Structures are given as structure tokens and as C-alpha cells.
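Entry type: protein chain
Record version: 2
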Amino acid sequence: MTTPDPQRPATSTPPAVPTTPSSPPVSPPSAAAARQSRTHRRGRGIGIGLAAALLVFVTVVLVLFVLFNTQTVDISLVFGNVQAPLVLALVIAAVLGGLVVAMAGLALRARRKD
């Protein structure tokens, strides 16, 4: 066992690191900040896993939708009749419906600005 040096005072804190006038002193991260960082990373991982699971679910549902709607249907248009797979007719109708809703939203937004 070594004896303490009488010339040197006993200190429990490490000596301060000299800083330059242009840089502020850097303090070590607190325990609360470390805990928050771990929680934040864990939350991000849960979010990525949930997004991946949702993507797989939607993909399976879309594949089943395509497989079960393969029969051909007659589509009556203004300029004639067309035969197409039911899934194609439903997807086109959904896209056109989305465009109508988007255009209505833009019109309402433009009206509110005036």
C-alpha cells in the first residue's frame, strides 16, 4: 500500500482540462441525457419495426386483392365499351377518385386564401 504524498493535496475530482478562449468548456453527458438518448433510439427502432410490419401487411393484402379480382368485366365508357380485368378497373377508379378529391381540396384551399 502506498502512502499519500504530503506535497500533493488529495483531490477527488480530475484536474480541469485547459480550454482555449474560443471554445466553451465541454461537460460530460449527464445520466439523464444518456437515458433519454437510449430511449430515443429504442423508440426509433420500434417505429422502424412497426413500419416494416405495416409494409408487409399492405403488400400481402394488395397481392391477395390482385389474385382474387382477376375476372374480366365490361366497362361502359362514353365513347364505347371496354373489357378489362376487375383489378385494373378498381385501381383506375381509385386513382381517379383520389385525383378528384385532391382537386377539390386545392379548390377549397385557393378559395380560403382569397
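Comment: The chain has a mean pLDDT of 78.
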